[in-house]
Each structure stands twice: as C-alpha cells, then as structure tokens.
Amino acid sequence: MTAPGLARSTTPVVAGGGPMAVVRSFLAAARIGWAVDANWTDPVLFLVYLVAKPVSAALILVVMVQVVSGGRAGALTSFVVVGSALWSTVTAGISGLSWSVLDDRERYRMLKYLYVSPSDFLLLLMGRGVGRIAVGGLGAVVTLVVGVVALGVEFDPGRVDWPLLLVALPMGLVAIVALALILAAVCLQTRQDAWSYPEAAAGALFLVTGAVFPLAVLPSPLQAIGLLTPLTWWVAGMRAAMFPDSPSSLGGDGSLFARLAGHAVPGSIEIVVALLATGAVSTLAALAVFRLSERRAKDRGLFDQTTGS
Amino acid sequence: METTARSPRAGLTRGGRRAFVGRTTTSPADAATWSRRQTIATELRAVRGRAYPRVRAALREKSWVLFEIMLPFLSTSAFVFVYRALQAPPEYVGFVVLGGAMAAFWLNVIWMMAAQLYWEKDQGNLELYFAAPMDLMSVLFGMALGGLFMSSTRAIVVLAIATVLYGVTFSVDQWLLLGAVFVLTLGALYGLGMILASLFLAWGREAWHLTQALMEPVYFVSGLNFPVARLGLLGAVAVAVVPLAVGLDAMRQLAFSGSAAPAGVVAAPIEALILAGMTVVFIWLARWSLRSLEQRARRDGRLTVRWR
Amino acid sequence: MSAPASPATASPPASPATASPPASPATASPATASPPAIDARGVRRVYKAKPKDVVALDGVDPEVAPGEFFGLLGPNGAGKTTLIKILTTLLLPTSGSARVFGFDVARETKQIRRLMNIVSGGEQSGYGILTVREQLWMFTQFYGLPGRQGWQRVDELIEAVGVGEQRDQRVSTLSTGQRQKMNFARGLLNDPWVLFLDEPTLGLDVAAARSVRELVVDWKAAVPGRTILLTTHYMAEADELCERIAIVDRGRILAIGTPAELKRRVQRDSIFRLELDRLDAGPAALGRLPGVVSAVTAGGNDGDGVERQTVVVNLALADDAALGPVVGALGGLGAHIVALAKSEPSLEDVFVELVGRGFAEEASTDRTGSDDDQRDRAEVA
Questions:
Q1: How far apart are CA A264 and CA A28, in angstroms?
Q2: Angle between helices A268-300 and A121-150 (to 10 degrees)
C-alpha cells in the first residue's frame, strides 16, 4: 500500500510561468541570500559588517588625508569619506554574486539544483546576491552618518538634489549588478580560491572611478577608461546629488572631461545620460559574458565540480 | 534470502599482491612507534605534501595572475594616486607601495591558512587530516608555503612595477636587518594565522565571517597606507600586537632610512625584537590552541559537522 | 513486524533483545599474545541536544582480535559511525574506554594514527584540481613516506585497485566508483594494521560495490595478519565478508557472533525444501525418521498459482547430518528427488528477532536518522 504522501496527484503539476513566477523566484532567492549572507542572527557579526568594515575603509583614507594635510583639508576629507562610503556598496555588490556562485558550488553543493530548476538561473543568482548588496548599502549609510557626525562632512538635507539621487541610485545599482555578473561568470569557470577575485576587481576599479580622488590626477588614458565606466558616473552623480558643494570627481580644470566637454563640471543631465549609456553597454556586455560562461560551464560540467586546493 | 554471488575472478596479479603487502612493519607496536627522526621527517614531508596541491593548482589554473597580481597592483595604485592628489611627499608613495606588497602576505595568511581548515571541513578533508599521524601545524604551514608562491609573486610585481612606474626610491642602510625583519614578520604572521585557524575550528562559520569583516579594520590599524605612528596610542597598541603593523613600521624605517617622513613608533631594531617575540609567542600559542581545540572538537563532535 | 524469511519452525521464539549478550565460547576472541586489535569497554557517547541529549552509543564493549574481519551491522542511526569515529580518534567517548592494539584512543592518538587508516563511503574529500596520482602522493607525505617511495607506492596501488587508466585524470572528473577505489587506495598507503571501513560501498552501483568488496577481500588475503572493522547496513555484505558480526541498534550491541551463529539464534534447525515426484505415504512417513523435527507439505500450487505436479515437503532437521537417512529412506517410499535446497534465515531475520522490527521499518520510524544526522541535530541544537 502506497504511503499517503506518495499517492500520485490527480491534478498534473505544471511549473508556472509568467511575471509572477519570475518575481516569486527572485524573492525566494533574495530571502535565501539575506538569510545566508547577512548574518542578521549574529548581532556582533552583523555590526562588524555594517559598521566596522565600511567605517574602517573610510578612516584609512581620512588618516591618509590628515597625514599629509595636517588637519587642514576639510573638503578633501568629505570627498574621501563620501567616495569610500559609496564604494563599500560597490565592493559588497560585486562580491555578493561571485561568492554566491562559489558558496553554492563548493560549500552547499546547491548550484546544480538551482541550475536545473525551472526558474531562470540568472535571476536566482541575482536574488541570491541581493543580501550582500543590502548590507553594503546599509554600511554606506552608516559611514555617511559617521562622516557627518564625527568627521566633519557637511550635509544639508535641504540641498539634496532628489531627482538626480532617485534616478542615479537605481541606475548605479544596475551597473553594480552588471559588474557583479561579469565576476560571477569568471568565478563559474575558476577554482575555489577565487574568493578574493571580487575584492581585487573592486580594488582595481577604485583606481579609475574617481571614488577617492579626482580623476584629473590620472594620466589621460586611465581617465578615458574611467569615463567609460558606469561606476564613475554613478559616484559623481551620487556625490553631486547629496553633496552639491563637493568638488567633482571626474571634472575639474585640466581633466579629460573638461577637454572633451568644454566645461569643467558635468551637469545632472550629462551625468544621467552618461550613466544610462555606459550602464546599458555594461549590462549588455555582462549578460553576454554570463551566458557564454554558463554555456561553457554546462559544456564542461562545472556546475557541480569542487575545486579545492 | 539475500546473496551476493561472486563472479569468478582471476584474483590479484603478483604486482597487485605486492602493492597490497606494501612496506613491512613487523608488528602494530613497530608501526606505532616512531623515532624522533622519523617524526620530524614526517612533519617536513607533510609540509611539502600540503604545499604541493597549492603549487600545482597555481600552475594549472592561471587566473590568479590577473586577479591576484595585476588587479591588486591597480588597487595599490589607487592609494598612490590619493597621495598624488594630496601632493604628498614622495616617500608616502613608497609607504603605500610597501604596504601593498606586504598585504599580499597578510592575505595569504588569512585566506590560505586561517580560513583553510574551515573549508577543509566543508570538503571532508579535515577528518582525513586528523586521522593521519602528522601534526596539523605542518599541514597549515604547508598551506601557507604553497600560497607563498603566489603572494611572493604578487609582492615582487607590486614592488617592481610600482617602483619603476611611480619613481619610488628606496634607501636601505641595513640590508641584513631589513631581511631579518621581513622573515620575522612572515614568521609572526604565520603564527597568527595558525592561531586564527584554530579559532575557525572552534567558531566555525562565525570566525570566517569575522575575519572577512575585519579586513579593513586590520588594514587600518596596521598602517597599510600610512605610518602607523600617526594613530597615536592606537598605533602603539597595534605595534605591540599586530605583526603586520610592527613589521611594516620597521620595514618602512629601514627601506626609507634618512627620509623626512614621520618616524616609526619605536626604532626598527626594537621592532625586530618585538617581531621575534611575537613569532615565538604566536607559534607556541598556536600549538597550544590547535591541540586544545582539537581536543574540544573531539569532545563536542565538531570535527565533521559542516556549515558550522 | 515483518515475517521472517524462513518457513515456520517448531523452535520457540527468541528471548527479547538484550544489550551485549555474553559471548559464547565459539565467539570469544582467541587468546593471543598481542593485545586485541580493538578493545572497547563500556563506551558511551552522548551528544548535547535540546530538548533531550542524544545517546549515540550506550555502553558498547566490542573486542576484535588481531587479523579478524569484524563487522558492525545495523540500521542508520545505530551508532556504527560514532563508534568508528571514536576508534579512529576523531571523537572522544563520553565515558568508557577504547584501545586499538593497546593504545588508548583518548590519550595515544598519534600512535593509533600511525597504524590505522579509514575509508568511508560516499567520501567526496580531496582536491578536485589534482590528478588521482597527485592526490594519493600528497597523502603518502602525510604518512611520512619518502617522496620517491611515495610515487612508487601510489603507482602500485593505483594498478592494484583498478584505476590505472585514470591515474592522470583530475579527481573532480572521476565517477563515484572510481573515486571510491581511489579512496580505498588512499586507505592502504600506510599499510595499516587495522583498516576501518565505514560503509565503503554506500552509493555505489552493483558492479562498483562488488569491485570494492573484492578489493577488500584481496587485501585481507594478501596480508592476513591485518584487521578490518567494517560498518554496513547491507546484510549481504556483512554476511559475505565478516568473520564475526556485531548487530547494533540504537547505540547498543544486541548480539555478537559469526554469521552462522547469529542465524542459529533464530533457527536452530536445518530447514530443507524437498521436492519429490510423489510421496504416497505422506509427510508423516518422513517425520518419523531419526533427526527429523518436522515434515510439512507445502501448498499444491507453485508461486504463479499453477497446480504443481510434484510434492514439496519442508523438512526441519535437527542438524544437516540427518539429511542422509532421509534421502536414503525416500527410495523405500517410492519417491524420487526433483529438487533439494537448503533454506537459511538472513541476518535481517536475526535483527527482527532481536529488535522486533526490520531494517525497513527502522528506516520509516527512524527518529534519530543516520549517525551523522544524530550528531548534526545535536550540534545544531
């Protein structure tokens, strides 16, 4: 006699499609990502990720500024604090997807099950990475608050360019996810020791995005790379929106932008258009790279390999 | 009635039988009792054995050349340009370059040593390590040694390229002391790495996350990008307990001797002594910590529980 | 409770299951000059858990002689893996003591690790990026073999276990069966005096499982002085391989003995199925013969419901020797033998006899799960 739970259903179960199914899959993956990565059950760990990590990153730069300027560089201090805060979101976002791939493949051995489920693999990965992006975003907020309260960053809520902020923020997050996808595609092909790759990539981008120093300091070829990177425009846009008096990260006299655009500081519209254009290119490129990596992984049976050394 | 009928087999070949006989020990007591020399030889071979997969993997899959060398070089360059934007004196660029080079060894200790036991547990290798007769310290040292190949390459590339590209000028008066400080810094770092590895064994996932989360705070108190003396009391404390801080401080004093940059927390020879003391203390602590935590893990049954 | 496989017998039901029944003289370890390979006394292992602690082992005392092939047979969650982990120094007993060749598992771990090795079923350990040969060589270093000798030993063992063709293949690309053979080779690298096999055929297909069992037998034959402790929940595997078996359930040893001794617990008589062309005198004529406990004719249909043309008699004999006179008497009764087969109880029958339920029922009412599940739940709590 068949156990009751195993009796065949009289109604065929068909995997549902449509937008609601997509949303459900994404939310389910996001919930898992938050539960696994956010460490919200461990208050100490959560606080360290939320406060100690991003604030320390900012303090490194603040001390660097203080060391040279001897405490006389108020505007520069604000510049590096804001840039560092924003960058903690970038680092967390880029790491999120890549570590999800490595975690699910090497540790939890779940990657193949995610892949063969009817939900879109890309969507599941993105949902899975959302937890870390959220923590990174919260860390950015905490750093800005610390900056305003303790480090002399001047912030006037009344002067915030809300339209620019509300447009630039989501566009920037899309760009971050696009870059994260590229890294995730790389991690799908590489071995377990790729844990450090996302931070290395974020560190490299740190050089060309004007996060903590004006782009004008770089040689022109590097400035050009920076201008083609969506994160450069995102950082500039967020800075311009929240701290309108802050020096521009990609403009300024003698900068490549000034030479190309004919004026020193980019306006809001320019920032949005450039962010849209570079973001779109990055997103398309990321999708193409990811699908290529996925196909190669399927071809070589990489979804369930373990690669420790 | 269950049966397992055995198919007719020719049985083992003579070669197979010889393989199964293996090396001869006359009794279990003979097999269990090793001379001091045999014990030491085993520990050294275990170091070599565990370093082997690291080196093979690095030669077999070369993505680390981009991600562990070129990109971190760009990351170090970012801090160089911060100082250039601030129009800092040129020796500060040298500080950042040296910090970037030494960061490679710190990351080797953290990712390729401290966190490794946690990952080995996940993979099911930890049980086999404990069931084998070598000391776990040999395994950890082998891991670090194997990773040294990549981190040394990274350090050399960062130093060489940055020196040429950014015009860093080193001025070394005491090469022997500089070499000794470097070796002692690695010794102290590896000792600390072994202690952290035992903590990971005890705390599991929390310890791994904690270490990952504390990367930037460690960079901050270590003065990776600035002289740690600028941190005042915090810098003094760091020099007393963080190997990277005291090692970097000493190496900066020795590598840029006579520069106008801020002096170290204490003189380099004293910091060398601090490092020597740290090495001894950390390695002794690591030995004690690994053994007592192994006992605790055996008592609590944690050696093979994944995801903890 | 599932019915035993053997036909109905006249023997009384066995007494209720008891912990660690005293060994009969036939099962006692033979007196040896060297210490027992394994000597456990009152080993107890408790995992802290909420709401209640989990008792994985509840005072077990197995003793294994040097050179013996000893089996621990029991369902998932019985405590087999827990006991192996204690004996291989991976786990401490909560109370009691255990020694491996005289060395204490709690205090003399180094000595034990030098003379033993362990191979587990379903083992996924190793470094995927290394080849089979490299992976095994790495382990030779952990056991102190000089480098060149290590390569030589690896090459010999790779051929002996049958993964020669995969020697230069990455570990991550091996099939389950190939990986387990590689694991078995790893278990022999240090020429262990005692080899612990923890469900070594778990998850393997029929051919691969058979192959691994044959490797075990071949190794034992090549080095007869070595001891093997095998844990398994496959009855036939224990029956085939082990010289003595301990049946384990819920942390206790219920019985120890050779497979034949254990089966005799549930069936003291020898049962034969005798198919004759005719038996006009009826089974009573056989029942009166010396040594015959009972003779009962089976149903007139065969298994497919087709009426049989022959007569099937289920004979219970006091011992096998009584069969001769029975066969001799058949001629006088005008009967000819069409087929004769001996019917034996299985080890599952023994388990049912001892515990009152089968392995399958054990799995469906499993409150504790596998040994690893027990421990994991305890740890999570």
A1: 46
A2: 140
Classify residue C31 by its DSSP letter. P
List CB contacts of B58: < 8 A, sequence separation 6 or more.
B64, B146, B149, B150
Chain A residues with beta carbon closer than 8 angstroms to that of C173: 301
The amino acid sitting at C372 is: D
Beta bridge partners of residue C170, listed in sequence order: C131
Pull the structure tokens for residue C248.
């384990």
Closest CA to A125 of A102, A148, A159: A102
Strand (E) or helix (H) holding B93? helix B90-109
Q: What is the mean pLDDT of residues C294-300?
A: 75
Q: Which residues of A150-166 are buried (b: 16+ CB within 10 A; e: fewer)?
A: ebebeeeeeeebeebee
Tell me the ipTM for this assembly: 0.86
Burial class (CB in 10 A: 0-12, 13-18, 19+), B32: buried
Confirm if B213 and B305 have CB atoms less than 8 A apart: no
**pTM, to two decimals:** 0.79
Three-state DSSP at C248 gives strand
Burial degree of A1 (CB within 10 A; 0-12, 13-18, 19+): exposed
For residues A177 and A136, give the distance between their C-alpha atoms in angstroms, rounded to a whole number.
13
Residue of A nearest to C134 (CA): A309
Task: Give the alpha-carbon dihedral of B150, B152, B153, B155, to 10 degrees.
Answer: 120
Token readout for C22 is 């005293």
**pLDDT band at C156; cut points 50, 70, 90:** very high
Yes or no, beta carbons of C117 and B131 under 8 Å apart: yes
What b-and-e string marks burial along C161-183, b requiring 16 or more CB atoms within 10 Å of the CB? bbbeebbeebbbebeebbbbbbb
> Tens digit of pLDDT for each residue in A112-129?
887 877 777 888 888 877
User: Do B20 and C237 make contact, defined as CB atoms within 8 angstroms?
Assistant: no
Instruction: Classify residue A127 as exposed, middle or buried by CB count within 10 Å of its CB (0-12, 13-18, 19+).
Output: buried
Taking 3-state DSSP, the helix, strand and coil percentages for chain B, each rounded to the nearest 5, stand at 75, 0, 25
Q: How far is C79 from chain B (nearest CA, A)?
A: 13
Other CB atoms within 10 A of residue A113 CB: 12
Helix axes B243-255, B233-241, angle to 10 degrees: 100
Integer Cα distance of C338 and B33 in angstroms: 62
What are the backbone dihedrals phi and psi of residue C9, each rounded to the nearest 5 degrees, phi first? -125, 165
Interface probe with B: pick from A41, A47, A59, A60, most Cβ of B within 10 Å:
A60
More confident residue, A180 or A121: A180
The arithmetic mean of pLDDT across residues B75-92, rounded, is 88
Residue pair B214/A53 in contact (Cβ under 8 Å)? The answer is yes
Among the residue ranges B253-257, C339-343, C376-380, the one predicted with the least confidence is C376-380
Q: Is C275 helix (H, G, I), strand (E, B) or coil?
A: strand
Contact call for residues C129 and A307 (beta carbons, < 8 A): yes
- Where b means 16+ CB within 10 Å and e means fewer, B123-134 reads bbbbbbbbbbbb
Q: Give the chain C residue nearest A302 (alpha carbons).
A: C172
Tokens 């975690």 belong to A103
